[in-house]
Fold this protein.
Amino acid sequence: MNLAVNARDAMPNGGVLTIRTENAARDDAYANSQLQDEAENYAILIVSDNGHGMGKETQDRIFEPFFTTKEAGKGTGLGLATVYGIVKQHGGTITCESQPGEGTTFRVYLPVGEMESDRDTATPLAQPFLGTETILLVDDEDPVRDLGKKILAQSGYTVITAANGKEALEIYQEKRELVSLIILDWIMPEMGGKQFLEEIRDIDPKARVLVVSGLQSGGTAAITREHGARGFVGKPYNVREFLKSVREILDEDD
């Protein structure tokens, strides 16, 4: 989604955004030159736009955390850094081709694994991961927030959502007695995770917070715990591990 958002922003006056997929084998000359994993087959996600494009100097820095070409307040500079981290965590590679005035094409190469047996893939979620508590889910990305709400609701939880830390604080102050856990995205506009954790401690030092973030470099997990979070889950999260972390925090003794 971050790649699509970047493509949109590169076409302020409109344009064409193309998203497609391809398959590639290790013996594909171009694919082989880009890959580091030993898998034989790869899936390729290609995101292209015909926007303003980028020069080489900008391309050399686009995956750096906090680097952005957008106006102040219009971007965190973490979108492509997050994409890069997620791709690498899955054994993949991401490339960028761009010329000023000619648009940009990103290619994400991901290794294709062997299918698990039907018995393995059909294993249901363990019952201990279910619950009936009320959870406040905070994320500025609508699709991510909606997915998280669906996963939690299907596991029995009541879910209240907020799009940023400021809104979440207001909700928590109003419904504090109902909320058993806060699931918090780390990077958000208005009020990010760090500031939220600082302010929630003044309101309720015992508030239980689970941080979720695609930014996992630089000791992010340790930093969130230093600021009072009970746990950390990286994005994109494994549903089972996500629900396991939720249940473990809810079952902790204060």
About this structure: The mean pLDDT is 83. The beta strands are 17-25, 41-49, 93-99, 103-111, 134-138, 158-162, 179-185, 209-213, 231-234. The chain has two domains: 2-111, 124-250.
